[in-house]
Amino acid sequence: MGIPSTKGLSNKDFKRLASFIQEQVGIQMPDSKRSLLTARLQKRLRILKMTSFSDYVDWILNPKHSGEEMINFLDLVTTNKTDFFREPAHFDYMTSTALPTLMEKKGAGSKRPLQIWSAPCSSGEEPYTLAIVAMEFAKSKMITNYQVKILGSDLSTRALKKGFNAVYEKSKVDGVPLNIKKEYMLKSKNRENPSVRMGPKLRSMVQFHHLNFMDADYNIHNYYDIIFCRNCLIYFDRKTSANIVNKLCRNLLPGGYFFIGHAETLNGIEVPVKQVAPTIYQKPHQ
């Protein structure tokens, strides 16, 4: 009891789920992902004490009965790999070019808050990194009262909860310079399970919001100077990627910057931004 009776999803059930995942969240699920999906679902079936993959698939695909399990299922199928200061060239560009330009031409950070959107934000490492980069920029320029507001949005409720709690395993910040950790992070006193929590200065800058890229309206009412949309477009086909970028850019201010992952490109799709550096784009001034 409680152990799935088959080693994997049947071909029929995998195709049913793959079609459903593409429709609901836009993520492509090729056959090469079958073993990964099977392994993740096995854990869920054990928790639920279910023995049949087919029964679980029938449950999920029935909107009248899936209920809260749908949230757990979507958490399983989304990938939330991230790190502090991942792809550091982007943060170097922010410090050297984007932040000074936005402050000089738009008053971002000085006359009004600098607005940054991390979409998707996963478990929060990226938005907190963005907050640190902005604060370090202000310190280096000896700017007092630098104002920063950061939005982190993601499909995964589990990831958003971790971001909101702002507590991470100590190993997650091992590569972060010591002076940064001392300035912005709080170390736990638990020696058996060492962790760090982002300090109140960072937590006050970051808000979290649940968002599905497939929604027709993202229900985001602010306008942003910088949008990070990194390492997620690789999971979508080109048409879906174009739709996502265009919807995100509705909330990007003219002159604002749009960052994608180093393994991604916007070449060949119609988007309202122009490349200014590798994997960095800017919305033209009106």
Describe this structure in words.
This protein has 286 residues and is an alpha/beta fold. The chain folds into two domains: 11-77, Chemotaxis Receptor Methyltransferase Cher, domain 1, CATH 1.10.155.10; 89-282, Rossmann fold, CATH 3.40.50.150. The protein has helices at residues 11-25, 34-48, 53-60, 69-77, 89-106, 125-140, 157-165, 178-184, 200-203, 238-249; strands at 114-118, 148-154, 167-169, 185-187, 195-198, 206-210, 224-229, 252-260, 274-277, 280-282. Helix 2 (34-48) packs antiparallel against helix 4. The radius of gyration is 21 Å and the shape is globular. The N and C termini lie far apart (64 Å). The model is unreliable at 1-6 (pLDDT under 50).
Task: Please supply descriptive tags for the structure shown above.
286 residues, Chemotaxis Receptor Methyltransferase Cher, domain 1, Rossmann fold, 2 domains, 10 helices, 40% helix, globular
